[in-house]
Amino acid sequence: MTGERNVTDNPSVESETLEHWALGYLGRYASSAENLRRVLTRRVRRRTGNDTEAVRRASPLIAALVARYVGAGLIDDDAYAAARAASRHRRGDSLRAIRAGLAAKGVAAEAAAAAVAALHGAAPDPDLAAACAFARRRRLGPYRRGDADRTRELAAFARAGFGRREAEAVLGCGTIAEVEALTNSEKP
């Protein structure tokens, strides 16, 4: 086994390694501060073979690195939350699912609330607009190809976090043009 290094031979992780990992991750993905902290902690655990002492020693290094990136503006939770909320809204995610997704990424409740509130300025009824996009993506309502099973379609909307009002409004449309009109109109 010469030349191979066992991960438990040197279970410590240095700040240069953490910086390399962090910059590599941020080069590929947008992230919140808490999410970056979680990613780096997982990488340390994987590198050290779940050595709790090594993870404990790396924790202040990770915290300092994340704080430095926040201070330098490399990580901005408010901008991250706004961009992620807008992207998920265009994709057809409900406001409830967007809030839950932001919380799962470690975004503070205030930043998530501000990002979701910004969606209200973009559309008169953001949940209805998202429901229309969801129907288009999942081929529900007028976008379906075959026969309709209204119960199954309502269940799909419910699982996605939409209320019955939004689901009924979209499923009540007979044509794709009516669904697009819903997106551009005021609240029903």
Total of DSSP H or I helical runs spanning 4+ residues: 10
Describe the sheet with the most strands: none
Which series of helices and strands comes N to C? Answer: HHHHHHHHHH
**General form:** elongated
Span between termini = 71 Å
**Mean pLDDT, rounded to whole units?**
88
What is the CA-based Rg, rounded?
22 Å
Structural class: mainly alpha
The tally of strands reads: 0
Estimated share of beta-strand residues: under 5%
Low-confidence stretches: 1-8
| Count of the separate structural domains | 3
Measured as a percent range, the helix fraction is 55-70%
What topology does this entry show?
Layout: H1 15-28, H2 33-48, H3 52-72, H4 77-91, H5 95-104, H6 109-122, H7 126-138, H8 150-159, H9 164-171, H10 176-184
Helix pairs in contact: 1-2, 2-3, 4-5, 4-6, 5-6, 7-9, 7-10, 8-9
What this model shows, in words?
The protein has 188 residues and is mostly helical. The longest helix is centred in the N-terminal third of the chain and has 21 residues, at 52-72. The chain is 69% helix and 0% strand. The chain has three domains: 15-72; 77-122; 126-184, no CATH class. The model is unreliable at 1-8 (pLDDT under 50). The chain has helices at 15-28, 33-48, 52-72, 77-91, 95-104, 109-122, 126-138, 150-159, 164-171, 176-184.
